[in-house]
User: Fold these one by one.
Assistant:
Number 1:
Amino acid sequence: MRRLLGKSLLAAVLFAAVLPAAPANADTRTSGYIVLLDNGVEATSVSADHGTSANHVYSSAVRGYSAKMTATAAARLARDPRVVLVQPDGVATTTAQTTPTGVDRVDAELSATARIDGADQRVAVDVAVIDTGVDLDHPDLNVHTAGAKNCSNGRTADDGNGHGTHVAGTIGALDNGDGVVGVAPGARIWPVRVLNNQGSGSWSDIICGIDYVTAHADEIEVANMSLGGSGSDSACGSNRDALHEAICRSVAAGVTYVVAAGNSAANSATFVPAAYDEVITVSALADFNGLPGGGAAATCRADVDDTFADFSNYGADVDLIAPGVCVLSTWKGGGYNTISGTSMASPHAAGGAALYKATHATASPGTVKSALQAAGTGTWNTATDPDATHEPLLNVASF
């Protein structure tokens, strides 16, 4: 599991071994200091001699201690011949927020609705993640815990796998200057758990999730389903496929569904819900640098930059293509991870649908689908598409 653990120390002014005497009216407020000592000198003795209480005592990497004291006391301590350094304590933070290459490639940073600037302005839209659940406490997600639903095993909608949390981050990770940022930053995520910790679930569990989303269609604008299995299309109302009938009615209630094309390098016509006409089906692009033109070196897995991902399903049922290779996003346990799949491509488009709905509240699912396709571009190596239908690459710059 990959976590963002890099740190950068704020610059600190060092005290020389000998400091001038502090003025009589020196500040009496205490601050933190780090004290380094000569070899063989005991931290407790120096600290006691100077009337301070050691917080941390160091004896392996360095010899010394940390303590709070006034600037006057620090100046006096620096003149002690047993002391080699007195340094003001500093503050370390995680590295600055990362814009994942996929979010960059779909131009989310150019969207006036996304407003990616680190100010934590949140897109006013609700998105259901029908998946393995979502990390209910992840600090980089706006999770609607009161709206969580568990249709799978386990006791809650908390994510025991990581997949659903990853999907949620690509859709709407917070633009808070930390971790990563999603396509629709701060979108309110409804965790709908239909898959177990191993990432599998029954059609009945999945229909339970769709049923729940439909019951809240007056609140939820978009639903992402990065899951699927064998099947074929049918007509709404034909009552040949319970899953399809559920999605038909949910779409009719106003919810836009975005789904993964599948990872079998096969025609998506033989996979559901990818084959359904009512959903937005998304294939995966291999993109390693967030830029068009190709040529970037592969990162987490072998593939060719700016090409149709070698695992992605294809065919006439696919409506859009979006980045799905080596995608960095949120992960269970408050962490971050990089994984690949059409499951990672789909939430880019779900985020795009969320941006559109945020400014077109009355748009029907069909209108949202058409808008995303119309805004898409052909700036990818379409010659690598296994079929003659070259789906547009998601682009949300105009949303």
Number 2:
Amino acid sequence: MKGKPEKALLVGLDIGTSKVVAIVAEHQPDEGINVIGVGSHPGKGLKRGVVVDIESTVQSIQRAIEEAELMAGCEIRSVYASISGSHVQSRNSPGVVAIRDKEVTAGDVDRVMDAARAVAVPADQSVLHVLPQEFAIDEQEGIRDPVGMSGVRLETRAHLITCALSARQNLTKCVNRCGLAIDELILAPLASADAVLTADERELGICLVDIGAGTTDLAIYTQGAIRHTASLPIAGDLVTNDIAQAFRTPTQYAEDIKVRYACALTQLAGAEETIQVPSVGDRAPRRLARQMLAQVVQSRYEEIFSMVQGEIRRSGYESLIAAGIVLTGGAARMEGVVELAEELFQMPVRVGHPHGVEGLGEVVNNPVHATGVGLLCFGARQAQRGRVRGTLAGADTTIGRALAWLRRQF
């Protein structure tokens, strides 16, 4: 009896400021994406999304990969990895070419995208993505897929994203040092958008706000296409630092207090509620009002949302995001965040959970894993287009675990 055909495996590697997460999924075009393994390890080698300590980053990636290999029973050879940070820049760029055979082919589309890409980029910057927004043939505008249409002149407007060359090289070096190839490096908010936004939201106009530990990333979509991306150097780790300073408690306890008790809207914290706060050194822990904690947290979230609003206004798309704002990332899970955001932005706000995948509930239902799941979605699309290099091979569960064990030993 023949065994089942081996399914293609995809791996998303979300390299964040506070932690590195590796997610392994099976993928078949007619069955979708099924998450079968996840590995996570605290990250200490990045600051504001940029590698500042190669050894620490390599170690975090290695531990997350080993944990994912053990759970999924496979050997990981290549990954779709995320990149973010305030070094990322974006612009909208036009391109135009003549249609060779009076009918648009895929080759013509490639040429016009190359024309949009051919802009002056500083020597210390590297082109990360060139994403089509819409096409025009002769005088006809607003075309989404021009292949097969007749005409003489093909134009496009594309969203060009660049990143610091050194940041890209250092991140790639860290992944390669773990014995892994990078299938593609993907901007984190684009991956998160893939995981949490619906087609209707992209069409109507939406702003994704991914609040991580080191950066808050934005992606604005209108009429089904990406229009603006940005990364702000303010995020969840500043909330932790505020709590540590205000309550005079070590940072690791401040993080725990934030996760367990924090609230982003003061009026949602009961007047009688108290929390236990560990002290520095040998001093006894204290009990403090939860409303005091909420006041500290709310002021920082107001600052984060104020910067987000300023970026949306600078983009010029504030009046076009009729569907409102979707919050995702670890710092979006806090009580009161949606209510505070709606109050400040004066538009609909929801928390975005990953969709379009099945399997492990801890991944599928958690906004913390939005970027990791989005990387899998991106990889699945590349696989359907036949652009996967095949550097990842699944293995029998027993063999995979043995390989993972051997790699840890040697």
Number 3:
Amino acid sequence: MNDTAARIEELKTSLRLQPHVEGGHYHRFHPSKGAEHVGARHAMTAIHYLLEADECSSWHRVDAEEAWHFVEGEPLELLIYNPVTNRLDRCTLGPLTDGMQAVSVVPAGAWQAARPLGAYALATCLVAPGFQYEGFELLAQDDPLAAHLAGLVPEISF
């Protein structure tokens, strides 16, 4: 096993990452799974999120803002599509060097997808107000928008 593969396995184990429905691996660390919250939605939730080479985060949207924070690995391309303006933004997250930023925020309701630009990328994703599965939607492959986005970003597969 090479150093990169060993690091990926170390991250999966130490961060307790599990397969994510949209692709990649994740672990929700805030609030913890056992945290009681009566009534209103949590103010914020947070996950560690890992994408390996040839994996992607499928097109999806959340009913709250989501901030992606680059942690380690190679750069990550975050794609944000606003259907109202028909605008696609490509953000490259990574170490603060030319053309990269460490953090990007996806507006509530915008479609988003991500892919690593190397062997792997680890990010922390914060959702506020807190993530709820009822406010999460994966883009269906037979949705007309899926064909449009596939034309704009063929690198993200369904």
